[in-house]
Design brief:
102 residues; alpha+beta; Alpha-Beta Plaits; 4 helices; globular
Length: 102
């Protein structure tokens, strides 16, 4: 499984637009092949920080997702609206819930 985490800093004047963009992107992404989860959250410790948590079946699914024109447009608009570049981390992960929880 591929786990992606990321965030973008919002500004008061663009906050509503950025939340709408993040929500639209997550909904669209969840419909893509190989997407197990894709969610957008507001950080409870910093309400101007929009956080993304994604789970994908494979790196190929992630590559396909990144190649979708709407994904590129989303990143470009977020980058233009934010005072800082978006942050992203991509990890390989193994679900060990059953091993730990029985």
């Amino acid at each position: 499984m591929i786990l992606i985490t990321g965030h973008v800093i919002m500004t008061p004047e663009h906050r509503d637009r950025m939340i709408a963009l993040g929500t639209e992107h997550s909904v669209r992404s969840r419909a893509e092949p190989g997407c197990l989860a894709h969610n957008c959250h507001i950080d409870v410790e910093d309400d101007m920080r929009l956080v993304f948590v994604e789970e994908w079946e494979s790196i190929d699914a992630v590559r396909t997702h990144f190649a979708v024109p709407a994904s590129g447009a989303f990143v470009a608009e977020m980058r233009a609206l934010s005072p800082q570049p978006p942050a992203i981390r991509i990890h390989t992960a193994e679900d060990i819930t059953a091993k730990l929880m029985g």
